[in-house]
Write a structure and sequence with these properties.
The complex is a heterodimer. Chain A is an alpha+beta fold. Helices cover about 35% and strands about 25% of the residues of chain A. In chain A, strands 7, 8, 9, 10, 11 and 12 form a 6-stranded antiparallel β-sheet that branches. In chain A, strands 1-6-2-3 form a 4-stranded antiparallel β-sheet, covered by helices on one side. A 4-stranded parallel β-sheet of chain A has the order 14-16-17-18, with helices on both faces. In chain A, α10 packs across α11 and α11 runs parallel beside α12. Classes of the chains: A alpha+beta, B alpha/beta.
């Protein structure tokens, strides 16, 4: 789950990482209130989960209530790269002496935590990585050893960060690492990490991605979930606990396992069709889950045919078949289903489908993935 | 021969009394796997259809000389279960648990590396491993796997995706191609066993004559495999990478973009493997048909 900047800053604050005084606002009046609390001058920042806010006019400085009103009015409702601004963050404007970059992530190939640190922050760090890769210090951290202040300090020196900022940045890195690790982040990034003229080191931005698998030990994440921006189909899928991504084709897809679901998209594409979605019903799919999946697909009016591609492992073919038959009793499906069923209890599953008394034009079984894809794409074209 | 597990492997199941552990543990036994014990704290003395339950992995190993563990416990309990098995001297651990936090996986992997270097972990979030006719640990339906032939040629399978692993097994069976071992390494951020680990084993396994690899978009595991293949694998290979048409996945911010350095796309992975001499199929069926051609030429 990606956090908004203000949520990231609130999360940072839990780990004692210095951020600017500020508050979130959904209306112009609220923005003025937050500005008074934070004290002028303030910066008004659009809260969207996409880069390039500044260039789009989504970040403005305000010196008084009138300016806050003007900028808040402009920014609220603004569209930035397809994202509509629903919230703004109002914080006390910081004096900036220098700007750095710092992040922690997991390096999958090294199987270690990775610190990236640069004295050239604030700008597009990808550009720095391309034009001047030596300007980014990379430090691998063993998860069971952790990051000591001494090691952090060495990285800061290696990054050629100003003498006067070394202690502050090193201390900040240790805190950011705590946040990354104990806070179960996939990514904890500060860009820019600033040095103020008075020598304080401070997070001016926050980019945090949380590991959804760790939600069970973070009840504090519930409030973040409430602000997630999903389309209607994705919301319904989330409620039903399904892995769903909406696309713009006409063949509805249900498969078990992310790999098979991706492969199903590939095959539909190869035979000339376009998938309406990615939907992985996961392991252990049962009748209830299949019903939920069909309800989600059925809510998408673009869907002209449905391709259910199941290879049983944990998922049992008989359960899947029962789910389809049950769902077709409960929901009036707007599109016919083509199913390909193999693996655990597939024979039992196929028998359930064959004996369900459902018309072959509404529910048909095919023996291979390619054949089923062809039929589904054909149906989508005709319907 | 086969890799990692064979007819002598004695398996205990951590979580045998739970729904999934019971279902798949018993299916593994029905397949002919030596499932010798179950472990559930507080349930020692009970049994699951004749398989004795012990309180700890230590006790189960002492009583049964189990050499491998099949872990089917919830995500919260999985990290401790893996380390308990390693501490008890288990050499091969299969963890099918889906949903283990990445921070836990990284910690467990680093702990195994430091304290239990002889223990191999497969997973978490993997379908398991099958050496057809000898041993099946995990959730693979054994009947879809073709037995290896004495004279060969036999194929080894390594895959990052669960269901695509079954797909490959099934397709090879339709094509009458024997399988030495099929390993599902799982798609989590820190898998205990990598493509490279499996490729090295297949390369030195006399019963494996060719290898199929199934990857997916994201990460750099396939690119690393391609490099290893170039330098160390002489056996012929075919591969499929899922996700050519998949929507762009989770963005990892600037940090992710830098780490991957443009790697991670299906096209990039296919190119890397092609350059390493691997034949690429555009879907699982095609990859297996290519393997059929490879096998006929051997």
């Amino acid at each position: 789950m990606d956090l908004f900047e203000y949520q990231g800053k609130q999360y940072f604050a839990r780990y004692d990482i210095a951020v600017s005084a500020g508050g979130v606002a959904l209306t112009v009046d609220e923005a003025v209130k937050q500005a008074e609390l934070a004290q002028y001058p303030v910066v008004i920042k659009a809260q969207v989960q996409v880069g390039g806010r500044g260039k789009a006019g989504g970040i403005k400085l305000a010196n008084n209530a009138e300016e806050v009103r003007m900028h808040a009015t402009n920014i609220l409702g603004m569209e930035i790269k397809g994202h509509v601004v629903k919230r703004i963050w109002v914080e006390h404007a910081s004096d900036i002496a220098e700007e750095y970059y710092a992040s922690f992530t997991l390096d999958r190939s090294a199987k270690r935590h990775l610190l990236m640190l640069s004295a050239q922050g604030g700008v597009e760090i990808e550009q720095v990585a391309v034009t001047d890769p030596t300007a980014i210090v990379k430090l691998y951290v063993n998860p069971i050893e952790g990051l000591s202040l001494e090691t952090a300090r060495r990285a800061v020196v290696d990054a050629r960060i100003s003498q006067k900022a070394i202690d502050g940045v090193a201390a900040m890195l240790v805190k950011l690492y705590e946040c990354f690790k104990k806070g179960d982040c996939d990514l904890a990034e500060i860009n820019p990490l600033i040095l103020k003229p008075n020598g304080e080191v401070h997070a001016l931005d926050a980019k945090v991605t949380l590991d959804d698998n760790a939600a069970f030990r973070h009840p504090e994440w519930d409030e973040y979930r409430a602000t997630e921006e999903l389309d209607e189909r994705e919301k319904l899928a989330r409620e039903k606990n399904l892995q769903y991504i909406g696309l713009d084709g006409t063949v509805g897809i249900i498969a078990n396992g992310a790999g098979l679901a991706m492969s199903t998209l590939d095959v539909v594409n190869q035979v000339g069709g376009k998938a309406a979605n990615f939907l992985d019903i996961g392991g252990g799919a049962n009748a209830e889950l299949m019903t939920a999946a069909l309800e989600v697909i059925n809510s998408d009016t673009k869907v002209k045919s449905i391709f259910i591609n199941i290879f049983g492992g944990i998922t049992r073919g008989d359960e899947v078949a029962k789910g389809i038959v049950e769902a077709m009793k409960r929901v009036k499906l707007r599109a016919p289903i083509v199913i390909r069923l193999d693996g655990t209890n597939a024979i039992e599953g196929r028998a359930i489908i064959a004996n369900a008394g459902i018309d072959e034009s509404q529910l048909m079984s095919r023996s291979t993935m390619l054949e089923a894809a062809r039929v589904a794409v054909d149906l989508a074209r005709k319907n | 021969m086969a890799i990692f597990v064979n007819e002598n492997t004695k398996v205990l199941v951590q979580g045998l009394t739970g729904g999934q552990g019971r279902f798949h543990g018993l299916r593994n036994r029905d397949y002919g796997t030596q499932v010798v014990a179950g472990v559930t704290p507080g349930k020692a003395g009970q049994d699951v259809e004749g398989i004795p339950i012990y309180d700890s992995v230590d006790a189960a190993v002492a009583a049964t000389q189990a050499t491998a563990s099949f872990i089917a416990v919830p995500p919260k309990a999985a990290p401790a279960a893996i380390l308990e098995a390693a501490r008890a001297g288990i050499g091969f651990i299969v963890c099918i648990t889906e949903g283990v936090p990445a921070q836990d996986e990284a910690r467990v992997f680093a702990t195994l590396q430091r304290d239990f270097p002889k223990t191999r972990l497969l997973g978490p979030n993997c379908p398991g491993i099958i050496s057809p006719g000898k041993c099946n640990i995990g959730i693979t339906a054994g009947e879809i796997a073709a037995l290896p032939t004495k004279t060969g040629p036999n194929v080894g399978i390594v895959s990052r995706s669960g269901t695509l692993t079954y797909q490959a097994l099934y397709e090879l069976k339709q094509l009458n191609i024997g399988v030495s071992t099929c390993v599902g390494i799982g798609g989590d951020p820190v898998p205990g066993t990598s493509f490279v680990d499996c490729l090295a084993e297949f390369q030195s396994d006399p019963e494996t004559h060719a290898i199929i690899m199934i990857g997916e978009i994201g990460g750099t595991a396939e690119e690393e495999a391609a490099e290893f293949i170039t330098n160390h694998v002489t056996k012929p290979m075919s591969a499929y990478i899922a996700g050519v048409t998949a929507p762009a996945g989770k963005k990892m911010g600037h940090a992710g973009a830098i780490v991957s350095g443009g790697k991670g796309t299906a096209q990039g992975k296919m190119d890397a493997l092609r350059n390493a001499g691997v034949m690429i199929g555009l879907n699982p069926t095609e990859a297996c048909e290519l393997m059929s051609q490879i096998v006929l030429a051997l």
